[in-house]
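User: I'm putting together notes for a lab meeting next week and I want to include a structural view of one of the chains we've been expressing. I don't have a solved structure, so I'd like a prediction I can at least talk through. The sequence is below, exactly as it appears in our construct file.
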Amino acid sequence: MSEKNIRPRHDQLMKHLMTDLSFSRGFFEYLLPLELREKLDINRLSLTKSSYVDNQLSEHFADVVFEVPYSDKSEVSAKLVLLLEHKSYKDEKLPYQLMRYLSNGYVDQIINNKSLAPIIPVIFYHGRDRWDLKKIRAGFSGVYVAELNYVPEFDWVFINTHDLEESSLLQLEDALLLSVLLTKKYSHHPDALLKRIKTIVSALSQASNYHHRQVILLYLWELVPKEKDLISIIQKTDPRMAKEFISHYEATVTKSREEGLEKKKREVIYKAYFEEGLPLNLISRLVAAPETEVAAIIEEMEQRKEP
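Assistant: Thanks for the context. Below is the predicted structure for the 307-residue chain, given as structure tokens.
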């Protein structure tokens, strides 16, 4: 198994899982501070199609935006935003990036004539090190207190998987959440992760969503050193899970290769027809496809003016 392009990245994995409301509700119920859990009705959490990430911010993180009503005010809601950072190292510029992000969010509400709702940023950081993320004002030295009043200040929820207590994780009844958070906690420590593979796989075997199980196993496949033979480890823990994973992996590899071949074929057709002006019958022979199929692809390209 060596197809790297099918392995889910950190942010892709979490975005996939967080679109499942049963998972995201459990995630926030476990990880949000008590003062927020008491005020927000997590059971009525809903996913939106919004995103406040612009081109510059997309280099730093991805977002998943939820709406969640207050427990005691059914007509009022807040925006609960999960921000997935792309980095695995500390970046002291993050608060300033958050300021831009929040500005984007509030401007979006205003220009779309929406009632203003507070945006609660939840940063999910999976770095190796502990990180005491400082507020913006902490970066100003030698400044009078009165002047600091002109510097923006806001709160966020900062989740560092390094700081999650394993003993608490093991008490989770949500097997899928347990497997994800335990994997994330030791994602930078392969040896420590290997010691917990049995626990992770056992938890995954209790998760009802087949696709979620496979996505997490693919992520584990990326993290575990190849010489350790993850498949054999899974086989000893849960033979059914190992067979299931191999089947899914092979199907994913096949699909990935087919998509790659299809993309290459379209690129050849585009260049041959639009750039070199070759006739349809010759292009058909070049890509080993029927002329009717090539003609349909060219017609589509003419409408889109791209491969």
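A couple of points you could mention at the meeting. The radius of gyration is 24 Å. Residues 197 and 233 are 8 Å apart (CA to CA).

User: Perfect, that's what I needed.
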